[in-house]
Amino acid sequence: MDFSLTPEQVELQGVARRFAYTELWPAAQELDKAARPRDAFPADLVKRASELGLRTLKLPREYGGRGIDAVTEALVLEEIAVGDCGFAMTLAHAWREGNLIARWGTRDQRERFLPELASDPGYLTSLAMTEPHAGSDNGLPYDGDLGAGPRTSAVLDGDHWVINGTKRFITNGNVARLIVLWARTDPGKPWTRGTSGFLVPADAPGLRVGRTEDKSGLRLNQNVELIFDDCRIPKENLIGELHHAHALSEEAMIGSKTKEAVRALGVARSAYELAGQWATERIQGGSPLIQHEAIAARMAQVLQELETARTLIWRAAWSVDHDPERARPLEDMAMLYTSEMGIRVAAQCLRIFGARGSLRDWPMEKLMRDASTIMLPPIGNEASWARVGNFVARHPEPAPLHGPRDPGPRDPGLRLPFTPPE
User: Fold this and answer.
1) pTM listed for this prediction
2) CATH class of 254-394
3) 189 beta partners
């Protein structure tokens, strides 16, 4: 197993790190304090990220990107998330939806949307799945109930699809130029077999932005309500097969949980780096805090958590590109561990700052809010635990995520010698 980085990975990691430390972090400290959530959106930073080639990294090279793999995504996104995890989420959407169109869009769709996405430095995308009554069941589907899943509908009317419904908590929804939408096209079937995907331009007639969510953390990232009121789009904007959005989502969303985990890792790393600086500078009892055994031990525990999380993330990311059948449970485990680790680490580092950690003009307070918000992702942790549990129930044999795909016939006698006592 080789953990060394390629020259391209080292280059991109360096570009992202310099941007995060010198431009994103200072700006994020001020934008986070904006009274209105819309005022926290960093439009200039999006354009700056575009100048550096960071916004279009996932696009294939023929469309102006770098076509990076999932491991490289994790490397770059960690650096950006150290600067601000909300901004990392904003860029990650452009990666995912751009890649979705490049891989599953028609030739006409690729030619209509991707050149502008690549050339316009402010172009962002959005994915509209969650609704007021349906969120985590997108990843843990209740497919036996006609009332479960999305209720937003799309009906073909001549040469146009007419869309009606409301989406909620939609990332980039008020700043995106293009929205990938999941809508019900066959209400007589469970949503997993009666939902389709659509490409909806932000200026489509009948689409408007409702409320902008006022979140405690991730404030640079925009989450909004999208209202579709007889919204009309060309029939050619159907992406993927009719009624097959769930199957498309299963393929297109692979890698998403890894990126969520990376954002939590970025917050935790920020907290560790800040606590390390403070522990070196702060004199207590005649010596720097870091020379106090209790403080050094606490920092060692945090570092162990960071390294454990990063290793699990890299393994999940590698599986996304090389072993997708095993990627989903690994991604879920990476997100589950890292999102909760982020809160533990932020709390540990907060204690090193003492009372100063709670001050609004000190950065640890922001990181605590960011860490707690990351633990509430689009597919919540409880649903992810259930999904991993379902995997375990289907694969009770030893080490289901290790070793070769087919290790050969199993000897039924090769089991631990355990007989339940009467």
Assistant:
1) 0.92
2) mainly alpha
3) none
